[in-house]
Amino acid sequence: MYFEYHKKSTSLLKEAKDRNFFPFEGLSDESIMVRYSLILHFIKEHKEVPILKKDHIGGPIPITLWKNKKYYWSLSHSQNYIAWIMDDIPCGIDIVEY
Predict the structure, then answer these.
(1) What is the pTM of this model?
(2) What separation in angstroms does the CA of 57 have from each of 5, 27, 37, 48, 61?
(3) What are the Cα distances from residue 87, in Å, to 10, 12, 20, 28, 37?
(4) What is the Cα Rg of the chain in Å?
């Protein structure tokens, strides 16, 4: 299992928009940052840029690599934090700030 969380950062947002790994039209700043953070980790671990897709009801579709290896993923963000989790079994994450 892989998991990361970060305090929201304008530098992370700027870097995500500058590198332009995915279309971010219609996404909130938090969604852009958390997707970018997961993509950076995936590139570091697997040397591939994943495509993060959702199904017809908004659930994450597993990332499939060569040899049909699947990675399940989940993203979350709050007012001040972003987080993601990824594993080879279905997983989920939710941040709640009080």
Answers:
(1) 0.87
(2) 25, 17, 24, 26, 11
(3) 28, 23, 25, 25, 15
(4) 13
Q: How many CB atoms lie within 10 A of CB 84?
A: 25
Q: What angle do CA 32, 78, 18 make, to 5 degrees?
A: 20
The tokens of 26 are what?
Answer: 């219609």
Burial of 82 per CB tally in 10 Å (0-12, 13-18, 19+):
buried
Taking only the tens place, the pLDDT of each residue in 47-89 is 888 889 999 998 999 999 877 789 999 999 998 999 999 999 9
